């Protein structure tokens, strides 16, 4: 799938070292009256975990929104392998505590892309939801309200909703922020297992420990790409200090 936007031809980029699931060049995007991403050119390797790292306001969430298709770039070129839309897991705080939704209903929303919100789920849909609940080990929480859950349990419910979409590209915005070490480790192990099962994972994170465990890293600063590559090459001793220094 290739999406073209009005833009001058981007500057050439180095040839990829591995197969890319997503390539984009010259991407510019933002919100009414505010530009965020500025001429970002990079690629997301297939069957790997890529982290988006950078300070608040660097453009991580905006780039995820562009990859998810919920934010339209103002210019640039984006190419994505596969025909299924990406699955997007927002920040935990973006889902209100007061929403009258059970865990099962939350995961079932992942099937809306196939059925729409008003059509009854099929037997296959229910089987997909059950499989996602089992994969996240939250079947026993299916009847609980989201607002009753711990942070780690709620995050697993949101990831299960993403899995229920059966996409080969999973996008997550700060999936481990605010969780205890056990919950972070559990989610990290799950994402690693998903890659082994054929899913390309992209997550935005502030956690440099999580970032260093990834396969690839995009380092963003002020809406621009500061560096890309393996975390060992990108997240050097001086890089975080340089990128996070006060403007």
Textual characterization of the structure:
This protein is α/β, with parallel strands linked by helices. Helix content is 31%, strand content 26%. Helix 4 (123-135) crosses helix 5 (151-163). The radius of gyration is 18 Å and the shape is globular. It is built from 9 helices and 10 strands. It starts with a strand and ends with a helix.
Which secondary structure elements does this structure contain, and how are they paired or packed?
Layout: E1 2-4, E2 20-31, E3 34-45, E4 49-53, H1 60-68, E5 75-80, E6 87-89, H2 103-108, H3 112-115, H4 123-135, H5 151-163, E7 169-173, H6 181-196, E8 200-205, H7 208-212, E9 216-221, E10 224-229, H8 231-234, H9 238-243
Distance from N terminus to C terminus (CA atoms, Å) equals 38 Å
Give the SSE order as H and E letters.
Answer: EEEEHEEHHHHEHEHEEHH
Strand content: 25-35%
Strand order of the largest sheet: 6-7-8-4-9-10
Flag low-confidence runs.
8-16
Largest sheet: 6 strands, mixed
The 3D shape can be described as globular
- Assembly state (oligomeric): single chain
How many β-strand runs? 10
Estimate percent helicity.
25-40%
Radius of gyration: 18 Å
Notable traits:
247 residues; alpha/beta; 6-stranded mixed sheet; 4-stranded antiparallel sheet; 10 strands; 31% helix; 26% strand; globular
